[in-house]
Amino acid sequence: MGAIAAIATQILTMLRNDAELTRILGAKPKIYHVWAPENSPLPYLTYAISDTPDVEADGFSTGELLIDLWDYNPTPERAEAAGHRITQLLDGQDIATTGGMAEAVRIVQTGKGFMETDNSNVHRWMSRWTLRYVRQGEKFGGE
Predict the structure, then answer these.
(1) What is the dihedral of CA 71, 92, 11, 3, to 10 degrees?
(2) What is the pLDDT of residue 143?
(3) Nearest 5 degrees, angle CA 9-CA 12-CA 14?
(4) Which of 62, 66, 86, 101 is the most buried (most CB within 10 A)?
(5) Smallest Cα–Cα separation from 129: which of 104, 117, 111?
(6) Which residues contact residue 51 at a Cβ distance below 8 angstroms, ignoring those fewer than 6 apart?
């Protein structure tokens, strides 16, 4: 498993295992990579994660995480509460990955908000995150 996959696994585990997010959504969150299967029942999360292969001068690599929360409800309150909880869980966090593929992972939110949908009862809350991390073996210039 590469560094970016290890980071994604850790973040998704945090989201799936959070009791408060489960309470807000009414069940453990269903999470899909990029797209949910056709006719998947709402609510669910989708995510996309990527990295920039270049290591910056300070020894850190940079990645980007996108999380979309999709909900079907007459009002946007549940989607907003779930989005707020996701922000509480991730923003400014330092995480560790299993297997040590990435060290010193820092997650910072760079954008969030509702996106327009074609159905007034479908609410899409999106968030964008920057990931800064050191790949195993690249710490301090590969020492």
Answers:
(1) 140
(2) 42
(3) 110
(4) 86
(5) 111
(6) 3, 4, 61, 62, 63, 64, 131
Q: SS3 of 14, please?
A: helix
Any idea which residue has 């007459």 for tokens? 74
- pLDDT value, residue 53: 65
Domains in the chain and their CATH numbers? Answer: 3-135 (3.30.2000.30)
Rounded distance, CA 83 to CA 62, Å?
23
Q: Residue 115: what residue type?
A: M
Cα distance between residue 131 and residue 51, in whole Å: 8
CA–CA separation, 119 and 132 (whole Å): 36
Long-range contact pairs involving 56-62 (C-beta distance under 8 Å, separation at least 24): 59/134, 59/138, 59/139, 59/140, 59/141, 60/104, 60/132, 60/133, 60/134, 61/3, 61/132, 61/133, 61/134, 61/135, 61/138, 62/130, 62/131, 62/132
Averaged pLDDT in 10-residue chunks for the chain of 143 residues: 83 96 97 96 96 70 94 97 97 80 84 96 96 69 43
Contact by Cβ (8 Å): 91, 110 = no
For residue 127, give the DSSP letter: E
